[in-house]
């Protein structure tokens, strides 16, 4: 039997999956690392921690699986999007990576808008948002000019990891689409955007398709992990593109809900479509494909925050056990998940979360249910934007940590008013990365062919008409909380 490895470089941890030719997960490991929030709105990570934890996880994967290293044919990657890694001429990291959920770049976004006007959307198909990479590059240019002067190339997180594993510098197109420097339809770096902001084109790395073979493992990495130096490495993709691959979202009409640290609603698109910048539009890992996506910045993060705050040390199952005892609507308690600001539909780095309607009778499970509902309402705003743009959102495949809980899956069906499907084996973007390696190795003729073997659907959750009606009503109230708390949060900003 032959194997491939899929690596997902997430925000909280790196996960490695060893998958066989039947699509069965033979072994998995996970290693975590921390986030640094030096100031409110800042979110950084040390790229060296990604490398060390990945190498450690790979070594454990090889050892625990007992598989012969020569039988592991290929590796590919999925990674948290948008994070800025700057390297000097020698390939050394110049400063900590500035991550997707860092919101310090509002001023740079306004500069991008005023300088490029409609050209930004025309070229990149996206709006200027704090999380994207170009504003981060501009922030370093303005605030750390001595660092910027030394910068020879920029990479995204999983591209840096791949560089350290292979010694080869590339960025894959699905991830490059989230930089605001890529001409998304032409799949080329935009000279016009680089010129507008004094960025030398040499800062942009060589582009690769997700399925492209980029090299083999460095001997030093093979030594440290126990893998063969002949293991073939394929470029890989953005975590949301890989999540889509791993969930079989590969043709028009397919839609995905992912609840990880962030939350995502995504639909496959087979051609250019105008979302007027309200929704992200990126290249898919399937060659020639695209996807439209709305993002809730603090989805799983919000539930994690509540768990850490009121139930530290408890398992998720224990923490969520009583949620099913509380009816839809959490006893009149509403939560907005704006703990780190918001992306879709309110691109707002200043807004923060609220509990509205707290009552003396509310117990812990009301808070927990309200947080789960608030996250799902936020994702429903993205479902609404897709539907308004004419996308038919039918069945939605649900992945990520949020898909582990059946009450939450049913809640998704009731709030989205769409059937929600759970995968047989929910491995998230790491499985998508393994599938890219499997296709790269030539096991299958296409990603779709691989998905037929690797992706299975276990159960479908149908919307319950009564609960759907309750949620529809509450959703209207939820939507008005943003406008009602916007100015309050601006006034509170000084106290953060
Ligand atoms: N058993 C569970 N039930 C419901 N939600 C869970 C469970 N376990 C984790 N989660 C949620 O999923 C999130 C982590 O999801 P994951 O897909 O692993 O995230 P990431 O890839 O961003 O690190 C947590 O923040 C938490 O909110
Ligand atoms: O910013 C985005 C997408 O635009 C995020 O989805 C990141 O890609 C991080 O994802 P998770 O760690 O939550 O999976």
TrEMBL record:
Signal peptide: none annotated. Keywords: ATP-binding, Carbohydrate metabolism, Kinase, Nucleotide-binding, Transferase, Xylose metabolism. Its EC number is 2.7.1.17. It is an enzyme of class 2 (transferase). Residues 256-440 form the Carbohydrate kinase FGGY C-terminal domain. GO terms for molecular function: ATP binding; D-xylulokinase activity. It catalyses: D-xylulose + ATP = D-xylulose 5-phosphate + ADP + H(+). The active site is at 239 (proton acceptor). One of its GO terms (biological process) is xylulose catabolic process. The keyword Heme does not apply. The record marks 8 as: Important for activity. Substrate binds at residues 81-82. Coiled coil: none annotated. Pfam families: FGGY_C, FGGY_N. Residues 3-246 form the Carbohydrate kinase FGGY N-terminal domain. InterPro entries: ATPase_NBD (IPR043129), Carb_kinase_FGGY (IPR000577), Carb_kinase_FGGY_CS (IPR018483), FGGY_C (IPR018485), FGGY_Carb_Kinase (IPR050406), FGGY_N (IPR018484), Xylulokinase (IPR006000). Gene3D superfamilies: 3.30.420.40. NCBIfam families: XylB. Belongs to the FGGY kinase family. Catalyzes the phosphorylation of D-xylulose to D-xylulose 5-phosphate. This is Xylulose kinase. The gene is xylB.
């Amino acid at each position: 039997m032959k194997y491939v490895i899929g690596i997902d470089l997430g925000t909280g941890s790196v996960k490695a999956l060893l998958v066989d030719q039947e699509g069965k997960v033979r072994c998995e490991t996970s290693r975590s690392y921390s986030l640094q929030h030096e100031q409110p709105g800042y979110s950084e990570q040390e790229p060296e921690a990604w490398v060390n934890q990945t190498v450690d996880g790979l070594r454990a994967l090889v050892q625990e699986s007992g598989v012969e290293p020569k039988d592991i044919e290929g590796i590919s990657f999925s990674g948290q999007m948008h994070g800025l890694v700057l390297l000097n001429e020698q390939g050394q990291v110049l400063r900590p990576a500035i991550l997707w959920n860092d919101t310090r770049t509002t001023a740079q976004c306004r500069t991008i808008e005023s300088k490029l006007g409609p050209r930004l959307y025309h070229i990149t198909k996206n709006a200027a948002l704090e999380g994207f990479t170009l504003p981060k590059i501009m922030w370093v240019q303005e605030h750390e000019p001595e660092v910027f002067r030394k910068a020879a190339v920029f990479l995204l997180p999983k591209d840096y990891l791949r560089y350290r594993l292979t010694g080869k510098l590339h960025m894959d197109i699905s991830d490059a689409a989230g930089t605001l420097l890529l001409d998304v339809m032409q799949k080329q770096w935009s000279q016009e955007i680089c010129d507008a902001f004094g960025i030398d084109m040499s800062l942009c790395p060589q582009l690769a398709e997700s399925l492209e073979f980029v090299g083999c493992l460095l001997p030093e990495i093979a030594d440290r992990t126990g893998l063969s130096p002949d293991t073939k490495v394929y470029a890989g993709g953005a975590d949301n593109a890989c999540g889509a691959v791993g969930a079989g979202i590969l043709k028009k009409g397919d839609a995905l809900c992912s609840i990880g640290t962030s939350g995502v609603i995504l639909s496959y698109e087979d051609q250019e479509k105008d979302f007027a910048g309200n929704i992200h539009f990126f290249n898919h890992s399937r060659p020639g494909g695209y996807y439209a996506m709305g993002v809730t910045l603090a989805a799983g993060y919000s539930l994690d925050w509540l768990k850490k705050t009121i139930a530290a040390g408890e398992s998720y199952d224990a923490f969520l056990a009583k949620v099913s005892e509380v009816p839809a609507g959490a006893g009149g308690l509403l939560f907005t998940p704006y703990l780190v600001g918001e992306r879709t539909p309110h691109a707002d780095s200043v807004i923060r979360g609220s509990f509205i309607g707290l009552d003396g009778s509310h117990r812990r499970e009301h808070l927990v249910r309200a947080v789960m509902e608030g996250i799902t309402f936020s994702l429903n705003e993205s479902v609404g934007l897709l539907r308004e743009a004419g996308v038919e959102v039918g069945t939605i495949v649900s992945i990520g940590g949020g898909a582990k809980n059946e009450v939450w899956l049913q809640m998704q069906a009731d709030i989205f008013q769409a059937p929600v499907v759970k995968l047989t084996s929910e491995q998230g973007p790491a499985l998508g990365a393994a599938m890219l390696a499997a296709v790269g190795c030539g096991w299958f003729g296409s990603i779709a062919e691989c998905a037929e073997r690797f992706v299975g659907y276990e159960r479908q959750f149908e919307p319950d008409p009564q609960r759907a009606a309750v949620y529809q009503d509450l959703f209207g109230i939820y939507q008005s909380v943003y406008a009602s708390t916007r100015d309050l949060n601006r006034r509170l900003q000084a106290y953060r």
